[in-house]
């Protein structure tokens, strides 16, 4: 992306299973900022509608929410740079297409698999009001991703192992309902 200086900590490209002939790709790199989740949510709608979906399709809403959650996590927990990639590609081992949403940040802290714990259960174990407030405000983003995406995961990037800046990709995969229009 023009205007983004390429430093040692600039975001790497996401590794995916596709060839250039069968993929549509959207990439955006930016400095982490509070406005980034809303901006990327809007960009994802524009890209998905450009690839043939209607704004009111369920997949558009699901992807918007997942992009928002992953970018929010990258801004809150990651470093100075964030990279978002949307890739529409043919399934490697199945018919049809899939959408891969990837968000990179320079943090080496890996998110753990989310565990659902209702606030009512937390109250029974006598957590203080401050902890309960924190639970109510956050900590459910990856649960949302897990519910909406077909699968999700995390891949570490290290300069020595991947020839990419140190950090991680958090990604989610969605089944694509139709072939995109050109």
From TrEMBL:
CDD domains on file: HATPase_RsbW-like
Boundaries of every Histidine kinase/HSP90-like ATPase domain copy: 56-162
InterPro entries: Anti-sigma-factor_SerPK, HATPase_C_sf, HATPase_dom
Keyword terms, alphabetized: ATP-binding, Kinase, Nucleotide-binding, Serine/threonine-protein kinase, Transferase
Source domain of life: Bacteria
GO molecular function, one term: ATP binding
Listed name of the protein: ATP-binding protein
Organism: Actinomadura adrarensis
Organism placement in taxonomy: Bacteria, Bacillati, Actinomycetota, Actinomycetes, Streptosporangiales
